[in-house]
Amino acid sequence: MPVLKYVVPALIILLILGGIVFFLSRENNQKSEDIASRATNTQQGSIVEPSAYVPVKGLQESYYPLVGSAGGKVSLTSVLNQTLVNIVMEEENAKTYSAFVYSGTCGDIGEKTYTLTRVINGSSETTLDKDMKEFMAKPQAIALSDTSSLPIKIVSCANIN
Predict the structure, then answer these.
(1) pTM, rounded to two decimals
(2) String of b and e for 139-159 (b: at least 16 CB within 10 Å)?
(3) What does the alpha-carbon distance between residue 25 and residue 74 come to, in Å, rounded to a whole number?
(4) Which of 44, 46, 121, 129 suits 80 as a labelling partner, its CA being 20 to 30 A distant?
(5) Domains (ranges, CATH) in the chain?
């Protein structure tokens, strides 16, 4: 079948890229956590502007600290003209958070532009049908919201740009 001739190599390439991303994310995990811990304000529930991120060379991948009462990191990876958004919390916990991409920055949140997969047991993975360069062309923020009580409030945020 002519279709299999293209599908099998594409799957192999995706598996190889996944292994590389996994290896690089483990290697840079400590750097991202250090930046996130330095940027976190000690007052629970308050958001401060993240001032730094750790870009990873080689693959088109970047890490951004989640700042707020629920710390962690966001990684963006370019995969086949799409953007893979991974969210990993500092501690795997039972809390579930809603995750969204907003226009603007953490200090000046705008409109919701994308809904991400909910963060469950400390992680979330969403593939956006948008090239990473286009996705990062203007300031955006990824924010996590605690929906377990009212009023709903943003508990962590990462500036993306």
Answers:
(1) 0.61
(2) ebbbbbbbeeeeeeebbbbbb
(3) 11
(4) 121
(5) 2-160 (2.60.40.10)
